[in-house]
Design goal:
Layout lengths: L1 H23 L14 E4 L2 H11 L4 E4 L14 H6 L5 E4 L7 H8 L5 E4 L37 H18 L4 H26 L6 E4 L5 H7 L2 E5 L10 H13 L4 E4 L6 H9 L3 E4 L12 H16 L1
Parallel strand pairs: 1-2, 1-3, 3-4, 5-6, 5-7, 7-8
Helix pairs in contact: 2-5, 5-6, 6-10
């Protein structure tokens, strides 16, 4: 009797934790595809969502990274390699952010065609480390100092969405009109949200902010604000004592009241700063994939509200 009760209790506990896990993260599988549909893989969640918005049910879209993971520290596992099986094309950012995909596919002798989505983007400078050993495909000339976080701008998103449409249409021309209709509908949503952001940003009283790393310069440019410094100059790498001293000086110089962290990166440095300085900590999420940020547009709306609450 005791054993039976214990097994029932453990089963109920397992169901509880599985339910919590399902509520916390959303699936990296797209809409239910039609039978025998082609397959595309994407690296980061925002690209996955943009691609599935255009692909609809004509192409199965999967994401290599899980919510909570960073492309700066991502490593392949056998389970992730399995997600590549059956794919014909791979869509990634490039610019050193996710070029680990090139090396992995080369080592697997894969015939998956790789596409980078930064064509037509006006780059801003960044400090993120790049994988200079990666091979580049489809016109990707390496830009050593380009900030790769191009998707964190609705202006850039309009270009990225168009690039994704052309990639899908090039590979599956029989669905061109379907992709075009989806693209036009989605672009209108992007444009509408962009207009709302820019209008509301005019009411910001503060213009300067500090974030975990330099992911936010494109969004800041769109909104007429400035990311004056990063907590970590290189994501995933602890800053030097001299850098932390400069960071503290910058906080004082601009009278910074809020520091933004990211859920994919360590908060050790921020925890140290908040011990000595009167700082509020808020989250900016560059990747999303949680229930609250299950689409790219929801992710951008969430980040805008976080900025607005700190800069109003």
């Amino acid at each position: 009797m005791v054993g039976k009760c214990f097994r029932s209790f453990m089963l109920a506990l397992l169901v509880f934790f599985v339910s919590i896990s399902m509520m916390s993260f959303v699936s990296c599988a797209g809409p239910t595809p039609e039978k025998d549909t082609p397959k595309a893989v994407t690296t980061i969640y925002p690209l996955y969502d943009m691609t599935r918005q255009i692909a609809g049910q004509k192409v199965e879209v999967v994401c290599l990274m899980n919510p909570g993971e960073s492309p700066h520290t991502f490593e392949f596992t056998p389970e992730r390699i399995k997600r590549l099986q059956g794919a014909e094309i791979a869509i990634k950012v490039g610019l050193g952010l996710d070029d680990w995909l090139n090396n992995t596919l080369k080592s697997l002798d894969s015939n998956i065609t790789i596409y980078d989505i930064h064509k037509g983007i006006a780059f801003m400078e960044g400090t993120c480390t790049h994988d200079h050993g990666a091979d580049h495909h489809h016109g990707d000339h390496h830009h050593d100092h380009a900030n790769p976080h191009i998707w964190l701008s609705l202006e850039n998103a309009k270009i990225i969405v168009d690039n994704i449409y052309h990639i899908l249409s090039e590979n599956y021309p029989e669905y061109d009109s379907y992709f075009m209709e989806n693209k036009q509908h989605y672009l209108q949503q992007v444009q509408d949200l962009d207009a709302v952001f820019k209008q509301k940003a005019q009411d910001f009283n503060r213009k300067e902010f500090i974030a975990h790393h330099d992911a936010w310069v494109y969004l800041a440019h769109d909104l007429g604000i400035q990311q004056v410094m990063s907590v970590e100059p290189f994501p995933g790498k602890e800053p030097t004592p001299a850098y932390i001293i400069q960071l503290q000086k910058t906080i004082d110089q601009y009278d910074i009241k809020t520091v933004f962290i990211e859920p994919q990166l360590s908060t050790d440095v921020v925890n140290f700063l908040t011990q000595d300085m009167d700082l509020e900590v808020k989250i900016l999420d560059p990747l999303g994939g949680t229930e609250e940020t299950e689409t790219y547009l929801k992710l951008m709306a969430y980040n805008f509200e976080q900025l607005k609450s700190a800069l109003k």
